[in-house]
Design brief:
The complex is a heterodimer of chains A (288) and B (500).
Chain A (H helix, E strand, L loop, with lengths): L11 E3 L2 E3 L6 E5 L5 E6 L3 H20 L2 H17 L1 H9 L6 H20 L3 H5 L1 E3 L5 E9 L2 E5 L7 H11 L4 E5 L6 H11 L8 E4 L3 H10 L3 E8 L1 H11 L5 E6 L14 H5 L2 E9 L3
Parallel strand pairs in A: 7-8, 7-10, 8-9, 10-11
Antiparallel strand pairs in A: 1-2, 3-4, 5-6, 6-12
Helix pairs in contact in A: 2-4, 3-4, 4-6, 8-9
Chain B lengths: L21 H4 L16 E2 L1 E3 L2 E3 L6 E6 L4 E7 L3 H20 L2 H17 L1 H12 L3 H22 L3 H4 L6 E3 L2 E5 L5 H14 L3 E5 L6 H13 L6 E3 L4 H9 L3 E7 L2 H10 L6 E5 L5 E4 L5 H13 L11 E5 L3 H13 L19 H16 L3 E3 L15 E4 L6 H4 L6 E7 L2 H9 L6 E5 L3 H10 L4 E4 L18 E2 L4 H6 L2 E3 L1
Parallel strand pairs in B: 1-5, 7-8, 7-10, 8-9, 10-11, 12-13, 12-17, 13-16, 15-16, 17-18
Antiparallel strand pairs in B: 2-3, 4-5, 6-20, 11-19, 14-15
Helix pairs in contact in B: 2-9, 3-5, 3-8, 4-5, 5-7, 11-12
The chains are: A alpha/beta (288), B alpha/beta (500).
Chain lengths: 288, 500
């Protein structure tokens, strides 16, 4: 008799722990051929609030890590993904017939992390500067992470897009809560397991699965989220900017309609890091 | 670590502060600035390179807050005027954005020079219309406005160097800008110079109470031969501003003003693809450590809050003073306040001029009354105020608690709230305990502490052993509810371009 397989219970990764939604709700995930895969947590705004709390706790220590250390941790995450690339590719296959893209997406995701890992100890040198003011002051501008950032992943490229959004946010010392692709959440479930083994402190990245319409309004209004990014449709973009106004939250959303090519070279940029830093200018007198 | 270190005892607390009492011994002769501001009785809108009457035919009065007398009539632009202005800006955009950067830069250089030529005339006009002391408009507002044009002129043909690694740096299109009344000409310069250097065209609305220098500036644009429609100025109140923000041709909106209005603008642009930058209010902490050079620090604290009657978004309106020197600092501050000269803004000896408007004066009075009611200790020097016009005594509140409204809300007037702290950590905690994050000040003799404080303070600008310093090369802008985007320096350019 064939041995019965032990199937995995999908859990989301919040505050460094694997949890089901506080609501106890799930939604079934099926493969293309209609085969049952598992019950995905249907996270709620309460889960989002819990994630923000975990993220806010993790933030100060993460932002104080040295740039070299943050770079190495991003590199370590790439190692973890590379090592389990077959499993991830299979997970990406679940939602689509063509599997050729899946291998490409996993290697693209690894390379994207390597790209941002390399920026960790360099972006400051490009984005910051010394300013030649016309008075006897040493005046310089440095970057500083914003804090907790909410990210809305698009439906497509459920691994590559998600990491393309996350990496430039956390590389500078921000923490993030990302809502995974609504239609293809399973790669994000696996990514959580890789994050957990990557030396990334718990709470720096939190991944939620579930329905956008249930959580987008809270992404918009949660006062401890200092920014919201990712991809959204017109209605969501409006909801988020309206909600964001209450706490003057930074909003950097791309339109779904733009159909961004996540494999393209311009899907990675120094300016994606720039989007999630604040600039601080310091005046210091020059004198004896 | 820091939390356990007891406050260091200094002998300075015991030494009585010397008092300067010459204010009572003799009176100053009046020393009014007499340059002719060359005001016109009536100012029209500036649209498409022409001075045009508003379609409604309506005008409103702008008054001198120092004596409540009318200075001129200002055109009231309605939505249809704003529409014409945007059409003009939109028509001017293709040619202006295609102009080689070096040529665009030359226009900005010209503007800077022409403003320098007419500096004193502009300074007097600014003081008349806004109430700020002539020494400030003469030595700060006008020269700094010219400097902003001169600085940005040089960027116009060097934008590729500002954004390494990009293929193209392109302007947004037509930019709608709304500016406040505290630095009317300077805020106009902060807004126009980077927008024009990067190839955008502009529709700008000056503040209702301070339109004169903006309209005089239109004369300079005319003298500079700036192509028609590149800059359009529409005057009016909140409704005019709302029309500028809401106009469908505005690819980007830039606003400086209160956090309350900033939030409204953010909501108004929701559902559009408009880019937005906001420079909003503040409640800056000015942190004074025991080892600071006290006399210089007190000067800095006074400048931090009484500069421009406290109508400064980055004003150091919360003084955090280390406990061991709190009494000494308060005594020194009181003595300093006694010799501040409050009065005629046109007088060259005036330190604190007129409050910009009756509305603002009432807001200050209201919040000061709340401060007294909530239990803070009020001090105001016994100076005589002019009988006409809007004036408010420089005010100190000591024994302020963090929960007091005078420690939380932006007063935008000459009112300083004083709180105390014991340790570095407590200072950081209290300084950051605000929804704002525009600026902060640190006074200490210790270099490592300055760097520690400037790292921990959640504010876009940190002044160490100085306060209220500005420069076109130095980026300015806030964290949190003080807005987003930067003005000045390489960083200020970024908000006016698209990168690809």
């Amino acid at each position: 008799m064939a041995r019965l397989l032990i199937t995995k219970t999908p859990k989301v990764y919040i505050g460094g722990a694997f949890v089901r939604s506080e609501s106890g709700r799930t939604f079934p995930l099926k493969s293309d051929s209609g085969e049952f895969v598992g019950h995905i947590p249907q996270c709620t705004r309460k889960d989002l609030r819990n994630a923000v709390e975990a993220s806010a706790k993790a933030g100060p220590a993460w932002s104080r890590r040295t740039p070299y250390n943050r770079g190495q941790i991003l590199y370590r995450l790439a190692e973890m993904i590379e090592a389990r690339s077959l499993e991830l590719a299979n997970a990406l296959d679940l939602g689509k017939g063509d599997s050729s893209d899946s291998r490409r997406e996993v290697s693209g995701a690894v390379d994207r992390l390597i790209y941002y890992a390399g920026w960790a100890d360099k972006y400051e040198q490009v984005l910051g500067c010394v300013n030649p003011v016309s008075a006897p002051y040493f005046n310089f501008t440095v970057t500083e992470p914003m804090g907790v950032i909410g990210l809305l992943a698009p439906a497509e490229a459920p691994l590559l897009a998600l990491l393309s959004l996350l990496a430039p946010v956390i590389v500078s010392g921000n923490t993030a809560i990302a809502l995974a692709s609504e239609s293809h959440p399973y790669p994000a479930i696996l990514l959580g397991e890789m994050l957990a083994t990557s030396d990334l402190p718990g709470g720096v990245v939190n991944l939620l699965t579930g329905f956008r319409k249930e959580m987008v309004p809270t992404f918009a209004t949660h006062r401890h989220l200092r920014g919201v990014g990712g991809v959204a449709n017109a209605e969501e973009r409006k909801t988020i900017r309206l909600g964001a106004a209450d706490s003057v939250k930074r909003v950097k959303l791309e339109a779904v309609e733009e159909k961004r090519d996540w494999f393209a070279d311009n899907a990675q940029s120094l300016y994606a890091i720039r989007d999630w830093v604040e600039f601080k200018t310091i005046w210091h007198p020059i004198g004896a | 670590m820091c939390a356990r270190t007891p406050a260091k005892k200094t002998t300075r607390a015991a030494r009585p502060a010397p008092e300067l009492i010459f204010g009572d011994l003799w009176t100053f002769d009046p020393a009014p600035e007499t340059a002719d501001p060359r005001l016109q009785p009536r100012y029209n809108l500036y649209i498409g390179g022409k001075f045009v009457a508003p379609r409604s035919g309506k005008y409103f009065e702008t008054i001198n807050p120092a004596n409540e007398k009318s200075l001129a009539e200002i055109a009231l632009a309605d939505a249809s005027d704003v529409d014409v202005a945007f059409e003009a800006a939109s028509r001017a955009f293709p040619a202006w954005s295609r102009l080689p950067g070096a040529e665009r830069g030359k226009y900005l250089y010209r503007i800077a020079r022409l403003l320098q030529d007419r500096a004193r005339e502009f300074a007097v006009a600014e003081t008349l219309d806004g109430g700020k002391p002539i020494k400030e408009s003469r030595d700060f507002d006008v020269p700094m406005a010219a400097a902003h044009f001169f600085y940005h002129a040089g960027w116009a043909d060097k934008l590729a160097y500002a954004f390494p690694g990009t293929q193209a740096v392109t302007p947004h299109g037509v930019v709608g800008q709304v500016i406040p009344w505290n630095f009317p000409l300077l805020m106009l310069a902060w807004k126009l110079a980077p927008a024009l250097a990067t190839g955008n065209t502009v529709v700008l609305k000056p503040a209702e109470t301070t339109s004169i220098t903006a309209m005089k500036f239109a004369e300079i644009l005319d003298e500079a031969g700036l192509p028609p429609g590149v800059v359009n100025l529409v005057t009016g109140a909140g409704e005019t501003g709302a029309a500028v923000v809401a106009h469908p041709l505005a690819a980007k909106v830039a606003f400086t003003g209160s956090t309350e209005v900033g939030k409204k603008i953010m909501r108004a642009t929701a559902g559009t693809s408009k880019k937005l930058t906001l420079e909003l209010g503040g409640k800056a902490a000015n942190i004074l450590f025991e080892d600071a050079p006290l006399d210089q620090a007190v000067e800095g604290v006074v400048n931090g809050i009484f500069f421009n009657q406290g109508h400064v978004c980055c004003a150091g309106s919360r003084l955090l003073v280390q406990e061991g020197i709190a009494d000494a600092v308060l005594a020194k501050l009181k003595n300093r306040l006694k010799v501040l000269r409050v009065g005629d803004p046109l007088d060259k000896n005036t330190d604190v001029g007129a409050i910009n408007s009756r509305e603002q004066l009432e807001k200050i009075r209201r919040l000061v009354a709340v401060g007294v009611k909530e239990g803070a200790e009020l001090y105001q020097p016994p100076c005589t105020l002019p009988t006409e016009g809007y004036y408010f005594r420089p005010t100190l509140f000591s024994r302020v608690q963090q929960s007091h409204r005078v420690a939380r809300e932006e007063i935008f007037g000459p009112v300083l709230s004083i709180l105390t702290f014991r340790t570095v950590d407590e200072a950081i905690e209290k300084a950051n305990n605000t929804s704002f994050g525009l600026s902060a000040g640190v006074w200490t003799d210790k270099g490592s502490r300055i760097l520690k404080m400037s790292t921990e303070l959640k504010a876009g600008v940190v002044w160490a052993n100085t306060y209220n310093k500005f420069d076109p090369a130095s980026p300015f802008g806030g964290y949190k509810e003080s807005g987003f985007g930067r003005e000045g320096g390489r960083h200020g350019l970024a908000d006016y371009v698209k990168l690809s």
